[in-house]
Amino acid sequence: MSTKMNEADWVMAVEVFRACLPARGAKARNDRLFLEALHFFAVHNIIWRALPERFGPWNSVWKRFSRLSQAGVFEAFFALLAECSRTAHVTQMFDSTVVRAHVSAAGAKGGPRRRDWGARGADTPRKSI
User: Fold this and answer.
1) Contact 98/71 with Cβ under 8 angstroms?
2) Taking a C-beta distance cutoff of 8 angstroms, is the pair 63, 9 a contact?
3) Could you tell me if residue 122 is inside a domain?
4) Which segments constitute the Insertion element IS402-like domain (predicted)?
5) How far, in Å, CA of 83 to CA of 66, rounded?
6) Contact, 29 vs 7, CB < 8 A?
C-alpha cells in the first residue's frame, strides 16, 4: 500500500479541505500541516501524544480534529474527494479502526452455565451448610 502523497495530491487535498471548512470561526494558519499530521497519525497508527513535534502541540491537533469531526467537516471532505476521483466507485476506505479484545476474552468457554436442579436421588447427600 502506497502512503506517499505527491505535491499535486496535497494541493488538491488542501483545496478540497478548505472548501469544506465552516465559514464561521478563526481561520487556521496552516491547513496542510494539520492534514499532514492526520495523515501521519493514520498511517503510523499511533496515539495523539506520539505525534512528532514538527506538527505542533499534539493537543492542538487533537482539539482541531475533534471540533471539525463534530461539525461534519470530514464527511463533506471525503465526499468531495470521492467526487474528484476517477476510481472512487471501485474502492473507498477512510477508516483504519482496529478492534481489540481484552486478554481475558481469549480461550475461555463462554455462555451461561446450565445446572440441572431436578429431583435428587435418595442416595445423594445434601450439599447445604
Assistant:
1) no
2) no
3) no
4) 7-77
5) 24
6) no
Residue 10, C-alpha cell as written in the block: 496535497
76 domain-assigned: yes
**Polymer length of the chain:** 129
Q: What is the C-alpha to C-alpha distance for residues 98 and 100, in angstroms, rounded to an integer?
A: 6
CA neighbor of 38 nearest in space, from 16, 63, 21 = 63
CA distance 104 to 96: 24
The grid coordinates of residue 77 equal: 471532505
Checking 36-40 for CB contacts under 8 A at 24+ apart, the result is: 36/10, 37/61, 38/65, 39/3, 39/5
Q: Which three cell numbers stand for residue 129?
A: 451448610
Residue-level pLDDT, tens digit, the chain, 129 residues: 456 777 887 788 888 888 888 777 667 778 888 888 988 988 888 899 999 999 999 999 999 899 888 888 888 888 877 777 776 656 555 555 666 666 666 665 666 666 666 565 566 666 776
